[in-house]
Write a structure and sequence with these properties.
The protein has about 160 residues and is an all-alpha fold. It has one domain. The protein has six helices and no strands. The longest helix is centred in the first third of the chain and has 27 residues. The radius of gyration is 16 Å and the shape is elongated. The N and C termini lie far apart (about 35 Å).
């Protein structure tokens, strides 16, 4: 289920949204701008918001399934990770109605996902769930970093 949600939110939904808006709502937005808009909304906004809800409501899932931590003392840290994900996810979700927030959300998301993905690579005995997290984190980092760099350089 985790893999399906990640694929939908990080690949299928953003690409479909870019395609649909570029074909059916031709508003003159560049492909790069649409990529930023929809990858930020789905990959940063909704993905991190869903992670936040899970980490806040049920921190044991992340602790045990992703990181293989059984210590109940870790749950408070996982819950606080959920608060951070909620904050960044909110920025990503709200960027859909505040387009000026897309680049800041992309930068925050790229930093978070890049560091999280790199952190996963340092754990040689990763679980399958952690491998999904690592690959998806590094993938969305690359998309957001390319978009952010292009937007900063004026290409978007």
């Amino acid at each position: 289920m985790h893999l399906l949600i990640v694929l939908l939110l990080m690949v299928l939904f953003p690409i479909a949204s870019v395609f649909i808006e570029s074909i059916y709502f031709a508003n003159g937005a560049s492909l790069l701008a649409l990529t930023g808009k929809w990858f930020v909304f789905w990959g940063v906004g909704l993905r991190l918001m869903l992670a936040a809800v899970s980490q806040i409501a049920q921190p044991s899932f992340t602790a045990q399934t992703i990181f293989r931590i059984q210590d109940p003392a870790a749950l408070v840290v996982i819950r606080e990770l959920g608060f951070a994900n909620f904050a960044i996810g909110s920025l990503g979700l709200l960027s859909i109605v505040q387009p000026g927030w897309t680049l800041p959300a992309a930068i925050a998301g790229a930093i978070f996902y890049g560091l999280a993905g790199a952190n996963h690579t340092l754990r040689p005995e990763r679980t399958a769930s952690e491998n999904v997290a690592m690959i998806s984190d590094l993938y969305i980092f690359a998309v957001l970093a390319i978009y952010s760099a292009a937007a900063i350089l004026g290409a978007a």
